[in-house]
Amino acid sequence: MSIEDDFNHFMKCLIEAGTKIDSHYFKLSVAGAENPIFRERVYCYELYHQLRCTLGDGFPYKLDGEVDKAGHPSLQGEKKPDFIVHVPGEMEQNLAVIEVKSTETLSEEVRKDIGKLKEFIKKAAYYRGVMLIYGNDENKFKNIQRNIGNLPQSILLVWHQKPGEQPKVTNNDQTT
Known about the structure:
Blueprint: H1 3-19, H2 23-26, H3 40-55, E1 62-65, E2 83-86, E3 94-102, H4 107-123, E4 126-134, H5 138-148, E5 155-160, E6 168-169
Parallel strand pairs: 3-4, 4-5
Antiparallel strand pairs: 1-2, 2-3, 5-6
Helix pairs in contact: 1-3, 4-5
């Protein structure tokens, strides 16, 4: 299989894993608060669990969460992406780097994370990047999408709108 085939398989598994995330992990109920709130870590931990289960043990890459890349010879500064999909210790086999934000996140923070994805692709030889936005506020998502502009082909913008629904690739306003 080619790296493109591996990435396409990974994306199918990411979409499938996303459909398994229920409302508890999408928005967390808080004691004393009227409405549940977005908690990125809660969503990410459940996504990690569902994705590991979906990928299975036969997938040739490892999924790791929040690996601190401070001191990495190819990356400057403190870098800690939400997820990396790679063969540890092998720079030639870095498949994907993923950042996750809710629709409540400011566009500036999303742009910063996209900059991080670009750096991992350029300097650490990751094949592709994924910017995953979750939350059902379409206006806020469209605002984020407008403010980040067109992404390079190496980065996919994925919107996970609702619990139990498939996340969708939405680059350049084309939902697939």
